Amino acid sequence: MAKEPHVKKSGFERSLSIIVIILILLSSVTVIYWYQNFRFPIIGGDSNNKIFHISATMWEFYPKEISVDKGDNVTIHFTSLDVHHGLYIKKWNVTANLFTNQSATINFKADEVGRFEYFCTVYCGIGHSEMKGYITVKEK
Questions:
Q1: 108, 114, 120: which is closest to 76 by C-alpha?
Q2: What does the pLDDT look like over 38-92, one tens digit per residue?
Q3: DSSP string spanning the chain?
Q4: Lateral strand order in the sheet of 114-119
Q5: In whole angstroms, what is the distance from residue 65 CA to residue 135 CA?
Q6: Pick the residue with more confidence: 101 or 3?
Q7: pLDDT surpasses 80 at 8
């Protein structure tokens, strides 16, 4: 019976392997954190003018919720990142339909306090029915 060769790793090789694994894990966590928190800016705006960027990707809007004060003039820069998407806000009867990498600007005045839904108007796949977000209008 032949003996299998035994390869002995040096301390340097083991340390280097551990360092590489740690760097890969930290990179992954950093990318995930960035993706969830900073991928698209939410611009607040000044006094009575609020500006937001809402991006659509398959089956989700980002951000899913925005908040403004009653009487604010709201500007939404809406972008579709992957496939054909739509955005409809029933309360203010505003809509936009965009193909991949297109943008549109939506303007309205937040004239009533409440929580209002926006949703995708173009079938974009299996998760389409759950693709919605909310605009919360608060009293000043």
A1: 108
A2: 555 556 666 788 999 999 988 899 889 999 999 999 999 999 988 899 999 999 9
A3: -PPPP-PPPPHHHHHHHHHHHHHHHHHHHHHHHHHHHTSS-----BTTEEEEEEEEETTEEESSEEEEETT-EEEEEEEE-SS-EEEEEGGGTEEEEE-TT-EEEEEEE--S-EEEEEE--S--STTGGG-EEEEEEE--
A4: 65-69, 132-138, 114-119, 85-89, 94-98
A5: 6
A6: 101
A7: no
